[in-house]
Amino acid sequence: MKKTISIILAAIMLIISVSASLISCGASEKDIPSAAGTTAAEETTTVKLYLDDLGKYDFNGETFTALVRATRIDQIDVEEEIGEIFNDAVYKRNSKVSERFNIDIEAIGLEDKAALWNTTISGSVMANDAAYDVVMPDYWWGCETGGWFLNMRDYDDTIAFDQPWWCAGWNDNAEIYGQIYSAVGSYCIDLYKNTMVVFFNKMLAESYKLESPYALVDANKWTLDKMMEMAAASSGDVNGDGVLDLANDRFGAYYNLWSGRALLHSCGWECASKTDDGAFEYRFWNDDFVKLYDRVFEIINNTDYVNYSGDNPNNAFTTDRLLFYNIQMGKSAELRDMASDFGIVPYPKYNEAQENFISYNLGTYYMAIPLSAGDPQMSAVVLEALNAETYASVIDAYYEINLKEKFSRDTDTQRMLDLVVDAIVFDFTFVNEAATDHIVMYFFDQIAKKNANISSAYEAKKEAFQLKLEQLFETYAKQ
């Protein structure tokens, strides 16, 4: 996601202002006179009304129907404006796209049950009933391997996957043999809500005279060792009972199962790597990976200033007893009333030699065009427009309701959020988690089980993992 939020806000406000004045005058969206009294043959100024490059389409009042998770329907479609920031941004986005292409947007909610989603989609495709123009299942339900979706690469003249409203970190790793059957972009709000970040307590950092995490990020010195060094300096037995516990004492860092899983990936681990023919293979197993496993094992299991648990650390963080809170971005909504200020930075690099910061996401729904779609070109056009419009306005509304004043007054956090989102990467095995026997989760889960001998554990599973991978490629080769 290449543009910064501040640039987006300025650009969108300019576009809205100019667009409103042009519409009120009935002007063409192509050539607008640059000064009063000039003619069309003279100097003209072109005003871009939309971020995308779709141009004009008229779908004659057709209904664009999206099958969505019932628990996410308010991110996709709302009935009216109600004076709530995010709700109204969703409503305005849909209204704008509907009016632009002469369509009605309708979302149908379906319970969060994998089997129900698979039978619903397969049934629609087999009946060729044109019931859905797009389907948006959760990533781990395995719907993408059913052979029910169109290759979205066939619509490259419409869907601009190189634009910042599409998530390259998903789409590049969902592409097999040049085919993309599932895609993720800004329209998928879980992309933002479920991305892992490091919240840090500014008061604690200042009290212990620690370096600024912002400055460390900027200087490429925000590493796992540096974070642990700072975490150790801020930990303490507050009640003096000789035992550190989350309810009473002060910790340097907190992880749960999901934020712990993010550690391996943010340190550069790539479970499956792309091959020259557009497939993927396992080539991660080496001494460097074992060293990384051992380092994360030590942090999670043998470091007293790190709390790894399923307990809720909100009270510890908001009462200034936790320095680094590693959790998904969506948790920020629970911290809005915190008295002390907090900041947000990406997960640290393994070391300074690591090229980029890497953001882990605990999961999102994706978009796919079913084979039974009544007008696949309409599906592609509307998806491109909805993702671009979400990127232009809805994401800022999401940030505003979750970070409130803390977001608006902290330009460093705004900048870090841009960096975090731009660094989102989904491993190929994560995109295809169900079909690869959950190998992407396996290694941290062994750490959580305190299995120090990962070599023997992996050796016992290695052939089964490889077989699952080969079966997945056979599925894609048949599509």
Descriptive overview:
There is one protein chain. The chain has helices at 5-25, 73-76, 85-101, 114-127, 168-174, 190-193, 202-207, 213-218, 224-234, 257-266, 287-301, 314-318, 376-408, 411-422, 428-431, 439-448, 454-478, and strands at 31-33, 44-46, 62-69, 103-110, 134-136, 196-201, 251-255, 272-274, 280-282, 306-308, 322-328, 342-345. With 479 residues, it is an alpha/beta fold. It folds into two domains: 50-192 and 364-409, D-Maltodextrin-Binding Protein, domain 2 (3-Layer(aba) Sandwich); 196-360 and 429-478, D-Maltodextrin-Binding Protein, domain 2. It has a five-stranded mixed beta sheet with strand order 10-7-11-6-12. A three-stranded parallel beta sheet has the order 4-3-5. A hairpin with a 5-residue loop joins strand 8 (272-274) and strand 9. Helix 11 (287-301) packs across helix 16. The longest helix has 33 residues, at 376-408.
SSE layout and pairings?
Elements: H1 5-25, E1 31-33, E2 44-46, E3 62-69, H2 73-76, H3 85-101, E4 103-110, H4 114-127, E5 134-136, H5 168-174, H6 190-193, E6 196-201, H7 202-207, H8 213-218, H9 224-234, E7 251-255, H10 257-266, E8 272-274, E9 280-282, H11 287-301, E10 306-308, H12 314-318, E11 322-328, E12 342-345, H13 376-408, H14 411-422, H15 428-431, H16 439-448, H17 454-478
Parallel strand pairs: 3-4, 3-5, 7-10, 7-11
Antiparallel strand pairs: 1-2, 6-11, 6-12, 8-9
Helix pairs in contact: 3-13, 10-16, 11-16
